[in-house]
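Thread: magnesium ion complex, take 2
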Amino acid sequence: PQLANQIAAGEVVERPASVVKELIENSLDAGANQIQIDIEKGGSQLIRIRDNGCGIGKQDLTLALARHATSKISTLEDLEAILSLGFRGEALASISSVSRLTLTSRPEYQAEAWQAYAQGREMEVEIQPASHPIGTTIEVANLFFNTPARRKFLRTDKTEFAHIDEVVRRIALAKPNVTFVLTHNEKKVRHYKAVEDRSLEQQQKRVATICGDEFIQQATHIDWQHDDLHLYGWVGSPTLARPQNDVSYSYVNGRMMRDKTINHAIRQAYGDLLPKETYPAFVLFLDIDPSYVDVNVHPAKHEVRFHQGRLVHDFIYQGVLNALQAQPH
Ligand code: ADP
Ligand code: MG
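Output below.
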């Protein structure tokens, strides 16, 4: 509990899209390379995520739904070096407290699958045998059924689904080796097929699928390294500048972030090349020693804090500037 208290408790569940984000991150942490996301009625009726990850053993099913039960950190020092996406052990507990949650799973070492069902704030968990291939399916039905105020805050199905679509897009951009299928009301909406290998060409395929062929054609590839810092990805030519920042994707150690330091550095590198009131288009990944980042500032809100902000800023600025100068205008 002490460790638990030291971990900032943030509100995880804001809307269906935040549930989808947490569940997909769990699937990725479990090593899945196939993730199926089924949505009904913008997620307010049903969110179902099925993966082919490592699964959860029968003995751990109930525990997985308990607050601050995480299999991902055991000591406080680990917090300094968080590499896995999930680490707070509160997503499943939070989600199941505001929905009807069913967790079905089978790890490889278990001959049969088991299903846990949790409902409402009492969090009483029932377990029964089930049928499921290796991996995990989590069904979240009737989100916010017991918190009418939140439920009222939900927008139209179309809007909520658009948020989910964006969450899947952001994650899929960073995980080209994972297949994602997204359905809405039983219609297939997205199918991001896993790329064949880690080659640049294959990675570009996923980026083109999500950001468009035009983006990849008019973008310059960055691969910029200094000491422990590594920046890679694509910066769009200024001709791709947009009135909205809808193609600005930045990631820190694989997590999608909207960070002031990063955005400022990129914007500064574009400088006068960028027309007023427009945003640059980019997909950039920053890898940095985890001990230089504090991701626990606001885990659900995509915020980071760099311990050496200036250094990170200048590194990104230089990398982007170099790439832009290499671009034909
Ligand atoms: P966290 O991800 O922060 O550890 P969660 O509440 O999201 O906490 O998940 C609790 C635990 O349940 C995880 O630590 C993990 O052991 C297990 N778990 C959740 N989802 C999956 C999944 N899709 N596959 C395998 N294990 C999972
Ligand atoms: Mg998690």
